[in-house]
Each structure stands twice: as structure tokens, then as C-alpha cells.
From TrEMBL:
<dbReference type="Pfam" id="PF08534">
    <property type="entry name" value="Redoxin"/>
</dbReference>
<dbReference type="InterPro" id="IPR036249">
    <property type="entry name" value="Thioredoxin-like_sf"/>
</dbReference>
<protein>
    <submittedName>
        <fullName>TlpA family protein disulfide reductase</fullName>
    </submittedName>
</protein>
<feature type="domain" description="Thioredoxin">
    <location>
        <begin position="21"/>
        <end position="166"/>
    </location>
</feature>
<dbReference type="InterPro" id="IPR050553">
    <property type="entry name" value="Thioredoxin_ResA/DsbE_sf"/>
</dbReference>
<dbReference type="GO" id="GO:0016491">
    <property type="term" value="F:oxidoreductase activity"/>
</dbReference>
<dbReference type="InterPro" id="IPR013766">
    <property type="entry name" value="Thioredoxin_domain"/>
</dbReference>
<dbReference type="InterPro" id="IPR013740">
    <property type="entry name" value="Redoxin"/>
</dbReference>
């Protein structure tokens, strides 16, 4: 997907390509991710989506300053929307040790966030064209991508509110 960064015109072009990319893609919900806190255990996106309106997938890494700055907002959103049919997954792009360390520091065990690891071949993040982090994908139980972008984009909250209005 091309990326253009010059001014308002560039923003429009980027949004156009992003919407075109999302319309032509469906996430295979049988995709398995490793659970950080239970060595060897895996969970699929279908497992997470079951009985929910969407899966909120937050891609992050411990070396990413903006990712770490966004963690309090991730925790706040999980607290606000988890009981409204949105399931949250923090997907680490590093390794189990880095994810476990951050999980302990942020007390993720006390939240409603599934703490997961991307596969070694980066299949999910590559499929979603995650070229920079933090990045969030909001995925319907059918695999349809409902929203994809930076977690600070106000359009994400708009989409969450639309999904949970009913």
C-alpha cells in the first residue's frame, strides 16, 4: 500500500488507500497467537471474538516509546469497552520475556486485556500491513476489518462507540 505524507492531499490519498486495502482483506479468524502468561498455550482470533462484537488488536513493542505511552489509554479503553462486547488483545512484536516484563510492570493481569505474542513469521501484522507501531486493528468476528490505524486517532473511538451503541 503506498504511503504519501505531504499535507492534506497526502492524508486523503493515505486514507483512500487504507480503505481500499481494508475492503479487499479479511482476517482468517483461525489465526493462532501465543498467550504470554501461559507458556505453550495458544488462542485463536475466533476464540477471542466468540460472543463479542469485535476484537481490538493493539500491536506494540517494549522498545517503542509511543507504544509504551499509549498503554494507559489501552488499559482505559479495555476497562470501558470490554463489558460492551469488545475484546482486547495486546499483541507484542518481540518475545515472551519482553512482553512478560511489560505485563508485570503494567499489571496487565488485573485488566481485561489478552496479552499475546505475534507469531515468529509476523503473519498477522504483515497481513494487516502494520508498518509502524503502535497500531490498532478492530476486527469483526467474521474477519472483516472494521478499523485500522493509530490508537490516538479519534475515529477509533467513534468506531468503538458505534459498535457498542446497541
Amino acid at each position: 500500500m503506498p504511503e504519501i505524507t505531504a499535507g492534506i492531499g497526502g492524508q486523503w490519498v493515505n486514507e483512500y488507500w487504507q480503505s481500499k486495502f481494508m475492503q479487499d482483506l479479511s482476517v482468517p479468524m483461525d489465526k493462532a497467537l501465543a498467550v504470554v502468561t501461559d507458556e505453550g498455550k495458544t488462542v485463536t482470533l475466533a476464540d477471542l471474538a466468540k460472543g463479542n462484537k469485535a476484537v481490538y488488536i493493539d500491536f506494540w513493542a517494549s522498545w517503542c516509546g509511543p507504544c509504551m505511552q499509549a498503554m494507559p489509554e489501552l488499559k482505559a479503553r479495555a476497562a470501558e469497552y470490554s463489558d460492551k462486547g469488545i475484546v482486547f488483545a495486546g499483541v507484542n512484536l518481540e518475545d515472551q520475556a519482553a512482553a512478560a516484563k511489560v505485563g508485570t510492570e503494567l499489571d496487565i493481569a488485573s485488566t481485561k486485556i489478552n496479552w499475546l505474542l505475534e507469531t515468529p513469521d509476523f503473519a498477522l501484522s504483515d497481513m494487516l500491513n502494520v508498518a509502524s507501531i503502535p497500531q490498532v486493528a478492530l476486527v469483526a468476528p467474521s474477519g472483516e476489518i472494521l478499523w485500522l490505524g493509530h490508537p490516538a486517532d479519534p475515529a477509533l473511538v467513534d468506531e468503538l462507540n458505534k459498535l457498542t451503541a446497541n
